[in-house]
Amino acid sequence: MNLSYSSKTNLVPMIIISALFFIFGFVTWLNGILIPYLKISCQLGNFQALFVAFSFYIAYTIMALPSAWLLDKIGFKKGMQIGLWIMALGTATFIPAAMIRTFPLFLTGLFIVGTGLAVLQTAANPYVTVIGPQESAARRISILGICNKLAGALAPVILAYYILHDGDVLVKSLEAMDAASKSLALDELARRVINPYIAMTIVLFLMGIGVRFAPLPKIDTISEETEEDEISHRKSVFEFPNLILGVVALFFYVGAEVIAGDTIINYGLSLGIELKTAKMFTSFTMLSMIVGYLIGVSLIPKVISQQFALKMSAILGIIFSIGVVTTSGLISVIFVASFGLANALVWPAIWPLALNKLGRFISKGSALLIMAISGGALLPLVWGRLSDVFNTQQAYWLMIPCYLFILFYAVKGHKIQSWKK
Question: What sections of the protein cross the membrane (predicted)?
Answer without folding.
Answer: 12-35, 47-70, 106-129, 141-164, 194-214, 240-260, 280-301, 308-325, 331-354, 366-383, 395-411
